């Protein structure tokens, strides 16, 4: 079986659930307490995509850092990014365009996947599928609704990003 090492970044505003998505994916847990990431936290997880074992080096950034010059160093060498918005906060979706632009300045032409998080909060949802689909088309990104709390769509989001990275590197058809 082939092996691929890929650095990925999770990008988005404060409190959209980036750290919670990583913890659900890597550790299989969800914690109700809000734990703000300071700087960057790096996690590792092996993902099997088709016939490839993909060692993901997952960079969890603070949030709100899209204009920070230091952050460009975090993005360099990344194979892809998961752009995260909070379905209960409409302002967190359009700003993903700015995150994508900043990310692509450091890591051009790398795959993006949008994780529209907190889908379990159905009565508080303020972003429609059509809005996500429009941004997704604009960014040439796939998108999925996720819930770090329930686990819905979390593995699928990382699998989708992993598959796109593998395709770009010519290892997955």
CATH arch. level architecture: 3-Layer(aba) Sandwich
Q: Which sequence of SSEs, written as H and E, runs from N to C? A: EHEEHEHEHEH
Number of helices: 5
CATH superfamily: P-loop containing nucleotide triphosphate hydrolases
Please, what is the average pLDDT? 91
The CATH topology assignment is Rossmann fold
**CATH level 1 name:** Alpha Beta
Using only CA atoms, what is the Rg?
A: 15 Å
**Beta strands, count:** 6
Low-confidence stretches: none
Overall, the morphology is globular
Strands in their spatial order, largest beta sheet:
2-3-1-4-5-6
Largest sheet, described in full? Answer: 6 strands, mixed
- The separation of the N and C termini measures 15 Å
SS strand fraction: 25-35%
Determine the structural class based on helices, strands and strand pairing.
Answer: alpha/beta
When the domains are counted, the total is: 1
Helix residue percentage:
25-40%
């Amino acid at each position: 079986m082939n092996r691929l090492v890929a650095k990925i970044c999770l990008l988005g505003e404060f409190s959209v659930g980036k750290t919670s998505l990583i913890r659900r994916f890597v550790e299989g847990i969800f914690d109700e307490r809000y734990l703000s990431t300071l700087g960057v936290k790096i996690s590792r997880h092996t993902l099997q995509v088709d016939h490839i074992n993909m060692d993901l080096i997952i960079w969890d950034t603070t949030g709100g850092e899209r204009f920070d010059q230091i952050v460009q160093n975090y993005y360099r060498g990344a194979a892809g990014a998961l752009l995260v918005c909070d379905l209960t906060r409409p302002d967190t979706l359009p700003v993903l365009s700015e995150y994508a632009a900043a990310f692509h300045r450091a890591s051009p032409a790398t795959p993006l996947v949008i994780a529209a998080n907190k889908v379990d909060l159905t009565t508080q949802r303020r972003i429609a599928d059509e809005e996500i689909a429009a941004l997704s088309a604009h960014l040439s990104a796939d998108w999925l609704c996720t819930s770090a709390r329930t686990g819905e769509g979390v593995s699928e989001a990382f699998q989708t990003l992993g598959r796109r990275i593998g395709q770009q590197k010519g290892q997955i058809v």
